[in-house]
Specification:
The chain has about 350 residues and is an all-alpha fold. Among the domains are: about 35 residues; about 140 residues, Helix Hairpins. The protein is about 95% helix and about 0% strand. It has seven helices and no strands. Helix 4 packs antiparallel against helix 5, helix 4 runs parallel beside helix 7 and helix 5 runs antiparallel to helix 7. The radius of gyration is 59 Å and the shape is elongated. Keywords: Coiled coil.
């Protein structure tokens, strides 16, 4: 019975102890719950404050945007933002480079400490020399690789420089244009001279042939003139042939004179146009000078009838040099046609004389 009471007392004591422990843990849990509730309240308050701060910041940003848009400083602000971004990127690069340098510094420091320990112990001299040889070999390989890369980049740079040298600059293009225009003018002059020389050569060749024919004709007439003059029939035939030659020459001369008169009329008309163009050019120059003098005094000119009457001859002045060039070209063509018509007249006359005389004989 006593043992049962003792065991029951122990159980009760154990239960009381466990109850106390549970009550203590419950009390701790309640305290933790209260702490958590307080922290939740604090976090909610902080969240409300942060939301209010966010709203205030957004309002301030909107006000700043409105002020910037009103003052017209968008470009400067954009530039400032770009500069800030660039500054942040530079700071990140600086931090990355600094961290990389610190890592390399710590690594090299550890290697130095290791080497000092090996040197102090005096056992790893052979390993140190092998390490130095390996390090030197790696450095030489890196140097050769860098040299190869540098050579490749230099070749690419030289290739780009050659390509840039092949592309002409603006001054070179202007010089090329000037030289081409000068070459074109020179070629045109040479072409005109060549045509003139060819025309002269052809005319001289025809004159030479005519002179040879005339010489042969005169020689034949001289050799047969005495025989033809002794008889009456011979004299009549000679006179008739000479009259035919004269009539043919007169007909040719009349045709050439008619053509010459027509060309002379055209030439006179062109001269009149040339004189009128020169007079118009002088008048337009005087009007242009007057217009320039009035333009210096007036800053703003209204488009009234007087300005239209002054501006119209000024624009007509731009067409006068081309008109003068056309007239000069036409006059040159008329002179050339006159020379060729005269040469053709002489050629046809001499050929007619030669044909009649040859028929006579």
């Amino acid at each position: 019975m006593y043992t049962l009471v003792c065991t029951h007392g122990k159980k009760v004591a154990c239960n009381e102890h466990s109850i106390k422990e549970k009550e203590h843990t419950l009390h701790q849990l309640e305290e933790e719950l209260n702490n958590l509730e307080n922290s939740v309240k604090l976090l909610n308050a902080n969240l409300d404050e942060q939301n209010e701060r966010k709203v205030e910041v957004l309002n301030e940003m909107q006000e700043l945007q409105e002020r910037i848009s009103k003052e017209g400083a968008n470009t400067s602000v954009q530039r400032l933002l770009s500069l800030l971004k660039l500054l942040k990127s530079q700071e990140r690069q600086e931090s990355d480079i600094q961290s990389c340098h610190e890592a390399k510094h710590s690594k090299l420091k550890a290697e130095v400490v290791d080497l000092e320990e090996k040197v102090a112990s005096g056992n790893g001299s052979e390993s140190i020399s092998n390490g130095f040889d390996k390090f030197l070999h790696n450095c030489l390989e890196e140097l050769n690789a860098a040299k190869r890369e540098l050579a490749g980049r230099l070749r690419a740079i030289l290739l780009l420089k050659r390509q840039l040298d092949d592309v002409p600059s603006q001054t070179e293009l202007i010089q090329y244009e000037r030289r081409f225009s000068e070459l074109y003018v020179h070629i045109q002059e040479k072409l005109q001279q060549t045509r003139k020389f060819y025309a002269t050569y052809n005319a001289l060749v025809e004159i030479k042939e005519l002179m040879l024919k005339e010489t042969s004709l005169l020689n034949s007439i001289n050799s047969q003139f005495q025989d033809a003059i002794t008889s009456t029939a011979g004299r009549l035939k000679l006179i008739n042939s000479m009259e035919g030659i004269v009539k043919g020459a007169q007909q040719k001369l009349e045709k050439v004179q008619l053509g010459l008169q027509a060309e002379q009329k055209v030439c006179d008309a062109l001269k009149e146009r040339h004189a009128a163009a020169i007079a118009e050019q002088r008048r337009c120059y005087s009007l242009l000078k007057a217009f320039q003098g009035g333009g210096t005094e007036l800053r703003e000119v209204k488009p009234d009838s007087h300005t239209i009457q002054v501006i119209t001859p000024v624009f007509g002045l731009l067409k006068i040099p081309s008109l003068l060039a056309d007239v000069d070209t036409a006059l040159g063509g008329m002179h050339k046609e006159r020379e060729t018509s005269e040469a053709n007249f002489h050629v046809e006359t001499h050929s007619l004389i030669c044909e009649v005389v040859l028929k006579r004989h």
